[in-house]
Amino acid sequence: MMLRPRGLRAAPRPIPAPQLPAGRSSSTVMPLFQPAAHGALATSGRRHVSLRVLSFVIVVLVPLAAAAVYYLAIAANQYVAEFRMSLRTVDAPPIEPLTLFGDIAHTTAAGESQIVTQFIASRAIVDELDPKLDLRRMFSGREADWWSRLWLPATAEQLVYYWQNQVDPFYDTSTGTIVVRARAFTPADALRLAQGIVASSERLINDLSARARHDALDYAEADVAAAEMRLMTALAAIRAFRDKEGMIDPGQTASADTTLATKLRDDLLKANSELATLSAYMRDDAPAVRVLKARIKSLETQQHLLAHEMTAGTAAPSPAPAPTPPALSHELGSYEALDAERKFAEAAYEHALEALDRARDNADRQHIYIESFVPPRLPESSLYPRRWRSLGTAALILFAVWAIGGLAVQSIRDHL
């Protein structure tokens, strides 16, 4: 008998393969291995079911439980102060026939409403209300939870981004109404926030109206000033002409000279008629005839002097008694040009004054003001967060992600 050392085991004996009886095919052996195959399939199915359950727990149940803890136990209440307002003008503009089939947003008040809506969502109103309401303290108070609060320190851009999530302005083009919803973590803060937005919107509209009125009146007043300066220049030119020529109105002087010339002509005709009558029965050296001839000569001299004074085409009698001034026709032409400029300046000044009055009337009629027909009120109950709706939305999203992921994994496994 041979002894083997300790610690050494004998090699296992090979198990002989089972011998098939003669006349039997190998298919008769299959039932011997079928129970093992069924066990492997069952094990694989249980593994797949356990992985599916585990993935459902990780992808759906755990995040949903975390969301439920946050929304039901941690999330802070947020209160909403809503108000509605519209922009109106004192005198509405006339409605054109084509606008009956179009949009009413092309009116002046509608355009200003769009400006107010964009202003409420801009940094300008944040910079205006922050010193008054201390927005950083309002949005980061102890009433807010860690997820929904404004984390400090916050830059201006971060504050504006948070503001746009808390304040929701909307302009309804069908009714011309601006609807604003302001959210805060206390009812008092929500009311103060809404009231501050209303005050800032009114200030903006008043500034825009005052600027439009100022611009319109500035143009009209500039036209009035220009027309007034033109009129003053024309009057100054006429005054200088009168001082230089020594006459108030050359037109009246010409009219008086015309009357005088008519009278001289009548007197000359009468004297010539008397001379013809006297010459018929008296001698030429008769005193009456000599006096009448002297009178006729004097009338003719006066007539020539007057004609030379009135028109430049008539030669002065020789010898002339003294240097004569320029012809009245020249003076009258210069004065008529100055007087025509004065009349045009007066008409332009009157039209400018009428345009200024119309501009004032239009500015008064088109003055825009805010009509807050639903003022902000103190909220009594919180509207946000909408806990059950948020949980339902989260459950649907998580289940969809899990289902799509499972289908993708199954598709990849089938193609491997």
What does this protein look like?
This protein is α+β, with helices and mostly antiparallel strands. 64% of the residues lie in helices and 8% in strands. It is built from ten helices and four strands, in the order αβααααββααααβα. It is rod-shaped, with a radius of gyration of 55 Å. The two termini are 58 Å apart. The N terminus is likely disordered.
Summed up, the helix count is 10
N-to-C SSE string, H for helix and E for strand: HEHHHHEEHHHHEH
> End-to-end span in angstroms?
58 Å
Average pLDDT, to the nearest integer?
A: 78
Query: What is the strand content?
Result: 5-15%
Indicate the topology.
Elements: H1 30-74, E1 79-89, H2 108-120, H3 123-133, H4 135-139, H5 156-166, E2 167-172, E3 177-184, H6 187-245, H7 250-279, H8 287-310, H9 328-365, E4 368-374, H10 387-415
Antiparallel strand pairs: 1-3, 1-4, 2-3
Helix pairs in contact: 1-10, 2-6, 3-6, 6-9, 7-8, 7-9
